[in-house]
Write a structure and sequence with these properties.
Blueprint lengths: L3 E2 L4 E3 L21 H10 L5 H4 L13 H14 L3 E3 L5 E8 L8 E11 L8 E2 L6 H14 L1 E2 L3 E5 L5 H4 L11 E4 L5 E7 L2 H11 L4 E5 L1 H17 L11 E8 L6 E3 L2 E4 L7 H11 L2 E5 L2 H10 L6 E6 L5 E5 L15 H4 L2 H13 L4 H5 L4 E4 L2 H10 L4 E4 L5 H9 L10 E3 L9 E2 L8
Parallel strand pairs: 6-11, 8-12
Antiparallel strand pairs: 1-5, 2-3, 4-5, 4-10, 5-12, 7-21, 8-11, 9-10, 13-20, 14-18, 14-19, 15-17, 16-17, 16-19
Helix pairs in contact: 3-4, 4-7
Length: 444
């Protein structure tokens, strides 16, 4: 069963940062590139990026580095009032409002920030769908140890088909929010504190018999488990309500209409001896051609027009005009799952794409994919096309988004998807609320 508890959050004091929290919140660390990191650093001297993705400096060593500086920033900003600590335990209702360029209306996505008791990933309570890598986990563990806090939430999903679990909390949004800011992508972030014991209890009870699916933040969750295990050795009498037994998590309903998954396209580059005609010939031996179109935009339109039950992918190949749309059902006699791929994974367009195109044709095995050798990822199809047209890439693989039902099916089967299978949009802001996780902190 999922154990969800209130906690005494640490939040920015708007009066201390000029009143505009748009200047100090940041995206999750793992979607910030180097140019964006520098821009966030320069935007405001107390931007949250200084905590989650600080800059390396000449002369850094064990006693002075970006992790120790993050810890110092956190302590200093608590001391000078940049951050304030809530007096009472709370849950935090978090609404994101956004609009796609092709739409004429805003969308809202609602969830709750809470402390969720950590469970082993094979216990059937908290369910992952991604494989984690050692380097990011080591990085986040060093940061957690230096700050003693969960700085950014894990993104969790649960089923609330009748809307009853979150429904009562939405009435809170008629009041002025504690936090209100717009990020560089134009997404508005608002936060309300829930301190009513009855509302906290009802929400916790509603989650008690739920499974929670990790949408984003697999490395942060695994890091929290590692930190918990270390702290248990240091504080064996701390008890089940100890803060380090929990992780900061954003909890939203799978059925929320604001839940959006965007596609993550693939670009193959630097393929040894790449020859476009040979590459396409080998692809066509595996996948029938559905149609040929003018460019990436037309290819994406063609993919979007297909029913959800169809299986499609589009390719832009260096030196070949236009784009080609292919049927991932495979050539006759080739549609069955290979013996080493479980059926629940073969149901994914991306697993078929990786098997037939990335592995069989391009020759990039799973280990090389994990190292991103000859392979990288873009959410913008036009950018992927530009890389191929410029010669920086050999092939752009344009894909359709993974469906949430596929995410939950893979998680329930205890399998993992190909890397970069989901891009949940919008991203949660880092800097909405911090959860301290060092003794003598307790939750609930």
């Amino acid at each position: 069963m999922a154990i969800v508890r209130a906690f005494r959050g640490v939040l920015y004091d708007p009066k201390k940062v000029g009143g505009d929290l748009s200047e100090v919140v940041a995206p999750p660390y793992d979607v910030i590139n180097e140019d964006e990191r520098r821009e966030l650093h320069e935007r405001h001297p107390r931007n949250f990026v200084r905590l989650i993705l600080g800059e390396d400096k000449p002369g850094d060593g064990e006693s002075e580095n970006r992790y120790t500086r993050a810890g110092a920033y956190l302590r200093d900003w608590l001391t000078d009032g940049t951050f304030v600590r809530d007096a009472a335990p709370a849950l935090y209702f978090y609404r994101q409002s956004y609009r796609f360029p092709w739409e004429d209306h805003d969308r809202d996505r609602d969830g709750v920030l809470a402390g969720v008791r950590l469970e082993a990933l094979d216990a059937g309570v908290i369910l992952p769908h991604e494989r984690t890598l050692d380097a990011p986990k080591a990085d986040r563990l060093l940061l957690t140890q230096a700050t003693g806090a969960n700085l950014s939430p894990v993104f969790g999903l649960f089923s609330d088909a009748d809307g009853g679990i979150l429904g009562a909390l939405r009435a809170l949004t008629s009041a002025a929010p504690r936090l209100d800011g717009v990020d560089p992508a134009g997404v508005r972030h608002r936060l309300w504190a829930i301190t009513d014991p009855a509302l906290i209890g009802a929400f916790s009870k509603g989650l008690a018999d739920k499974q929670i699916f990790i949408a984003d933040g697999h490395h942060r969750y695994s890091t929290a488990l590692a930190f918990r295990d270390r702290m248990r050795k240091e504080y064996p009498q701390a008890g089940e309500r100890a803060s380090f037994e929990h992780v900061l998590m954003y909890l939203m309903a799978i059925e929320d209409p604001g839940l959006v998954i965007l596609p993550i396209h693939r670009v193959l580059y630097g393929l040894p001896g790449f020859d476009a005609a040979s590459f396409l010939k080998r692809v066509r031996e595996r996948l029938p051609v559905v149609r040929e179109v003018a460019d990436a935009a037309a290819a994406c339109a063609a993919l979007d027009s297909e029913p959800a039950s169809s299986r499609r992918v589009a390719l832009v190949v260096r030196g070949v005009p236009g784009a080609v749309v292919l049927d991932l059902a495979g050539q006759p006699g080739r549609g069955d799952a290979p013996a080493h791929i479980p059926a629940v994974l073969w149901d994914l367009d991306l697993r078929r794409i990786h098997h037939w195109i990335v592995e069989e044709v391009a020759g990039i095995d799973i280990a090389a994919q994990a190292r991103k050798e000859h392979l990288h990822f873009l959410t913008d199809a036009a950018e992927a096309e530009k890389e191929v047209q410029s010669g920086a890439g050999d092939v752009a693989i344009l894909v359709r988004p993974t469906r949430i039902q596929q995410v939950t099916a893979v998680a329930l089967a205890k399998e993992v998807m190909p890397q970069k299978s989901t891009f949940f949009y919008p991203k949660l802001a880092s800097g909405t609320v911090i959860a301290p996780i060092v003794p003598p902190e307790t939750l609930g």
